[in-house]
# Entry
Amino acid sequence: MSTPELAGKAAGGLFEEAERQLRICNACRYCDGYCAVFTSLERRPRLTAGDLTQLAHLCHDCRNCFYACMYSPPHAFAVNPPQLFSALRRATYDRQRRTLVKAMPPALRGWHGTAAVTVIAALLLLAAAQLSRGTQPPTSVHGSSASPYSVIPYAALVTLVLIASAWSALTMLRMARRHWTEIRGSATRRLGWAVVLQTVADAGQLRYLKGGGAGCAYPDQEPAPARRRFHAAILYGFAALLLSTVSASVAQHLLGAQPPYPIASVPVGLGIAGGASVVLGCSGLLILKARMDTVPADARMTARDYGLLVTLDLLAVTGLLTLALRDTPAYAAVLTAHLSLVVAAILAAPYSKILHAVYRFLSILEDNAERAARQLPAS
Amino acid sequence: MRRTRDSDQVTNSTLGARWDVLVIGGGNAGLVAAISARHLGRRVLVLERAPVGLRGGNTRHAINIRCVHRTAGAYNTGSYLNDDFLSDLHTVAGAQTDAELAALTVMESESVPQWASDHGVHWQPLSSAARQLGRTNRLVLGGGKALVNAYHATLAQMGVKVLYNAVTQDLLIDGDRCTGAVVDVEGRAFELAARAVVCASGGCAADQDWLRQQWGASAANCHVRGTGYNDGTVLRALYAHGAAPAGQAHSFHAVPVDARSPRFDGGIATRIDSIPFSILLDRSGRRFCDEGDSLPKRYGAWGQALAGLPGQTAYSIWDAKVNGAFRPPMCRPLQATSIASLARMLGLDQRTVCRTVASYNASITGTGTGTFDPSRKDGLCTIGLHPPKSNWAQRIDQPPFYAVAIRPGVTFANLGAAVTAQANVKRVDGTVFANVFAAGEIMAGNILPTGYLAGLGLTIATVWGRIAGRAAGAAASVDA
# Structure
């Protein structure tokens, strides 16, 4: 009997290779304690494309399984779940993106794509600003009483941001629904509040970056808490920035206080804390990624990871710079740059890896729902 | 910290130095011995035969460890006391086990989990799925290779050097003392001087000569589930220098594995779990045994039985009804819509196979003797069939039909070197090597001369790794 599937990669595509490797994982099961993926696999005797999507997004790339696996390269079985799941996640992003645009025009791909969208956003902002100002000349924009609305009028800013956000949010909602349908398969079970709350807790504490207690084997095989901590800094920093915007809105509309706000105010305080946290987290993850073991990585996915991290880092850095330079002549330029990047980021979001938050949340939700239905304990 | 590169390791200072303790072997036992000797402040060198990506010997394939514990806890469902452990050991090993060493192993096992945790090992908490071995054994989180990684990280922190691709060919013996070892590092032979040596180089299951002695030419059809590096080179060197053997020479543990799996290093994933729920045919297309005789998971008996068959091959056939009642094979089983085409795919005589399945099906009257239960003997049996099937007998009549060819896969051999209670290797003439110690699979035969007890391997490796490491460290402090 010939054994073409026993040594090395399967001849077919990603699906065949995923089946080949996961059959081995299912026969071995030593990694059950690291995360939910392997126990989820056990419940899926006949793998479908939806199953693979579910498993791939349940995986948080902690890489413990790769270093614990006696079949990982250089063994002939060449089992490499982190790389496999990264490739499967990349396939999800590609598939979802194809529902937005058949093929990304070369001019909008990669770095120059992000730059192009930022420039377009800047032009839109300035055009909207000009329109709403009409024939009034721009007021003097520096000095301690400088308001951001003297650079970009409030109406223009809010309109542009709201339109962009509405489109972006609705699009991402549609993508979320598509993902949910795909990973649920034919399941009809309902979601209880306990399951939802459990998922919020799991996502909020980045549970699966704890590696079942062993830590995350990143950037190399020494389990460490760094990745989870840097990621938490980004997540909570981002939340603080959102709160900052909301609190500014409350201040402006409910309390009648116009920007600029003093340093010792809620909006600015949250903005500084949030911005610094995001910069710390993104820079930390970028440094780790530069040092990481590339064998368990999917190279093309890594490129996209860098894209997201650099963009978020730039957003936070320009935001902090805007605050730092608000009493200088550079304020208008820096503010415009920051706001352009914000609008560009909002527009680019459905095409970007920021969706990982949505896909992973939904996959954890599905997994928790499955466990509840079978009365299994948490992983 | 980056993985060690194979190339930047062999320096003149490494080779020219006189080491306090040489540890031959980088599996559980060797790593524990090295850590223990290092705790005494000795200069320790670990000689790992494999390249870094395959380091750890058979430990890579292990996960269970069996230790005395007084209460249930996060990792065990109940207590397991000294007498329980000793009783289980005697059940499988019979009366030939060395009573003193067995008692010592059991007693020392109680402190093993804490020691391992202190040195970086994590454990897998119990899940709700009732584990058969949950009372007696606990699982290493991630399995043996994760344990090997953790110990290597500990060794690096302690400043212990590890040489990879370092094959120990012989020991340098002068009278009753060892002065070092002859080691082949990346193709070049060196003599390494040492004050004490710990032999933790594994057993001899991958020793081609030994395998041929067991089964003759048919050894070629037997798989070795573990590392191909366990070819017993160091064990034979010890014998050549007068070491006494321990463990029954022809005893080994084997389980059914997929015939398509690699000859060496196939590990846990190649095991076939279908036998009790299927029927087993030999090359002639006939049944030859009672597939329902032993509890599911008594794989050891099957391994031995397969070794005696023509071609060392059997064929397990089942249908869609039971597919999913057991862990699926790593590679897809053969699949067909009829028994005849299945037989054709297997290369067996169609008529004989069809007749076998038909007479098997005819012997199952199904008159309410119970329901199929894969977790215990369910009493569903054949009537008037020879050989009978005493449990899990159901008709094979629902397509698709599945089959997989099975061969014996050797897990380990019981043969090894005899040791004292301080892990000194004993000699045939009644004396003892003053500064040569053994730990792990190479001396497991002292405690397990025959038979198999799940989880005992990692226990023996840790207990005797500590004893040997400390003893070697102490011996190294006495200037020769």
Q: What stands out?
A: Chain A is about 65% helix and 0% strand. Chain A touches chain B at residues 1, 3, 5-7, 23-24, 26-34, 39, 45, 64-65, 67-71, 73-77, 212-214, 220-222, 293, 375-377 (CB under 8 Å). Chain A has a mean pLDDT of 89. The beta strands of chain A are 216-217, 223-224.
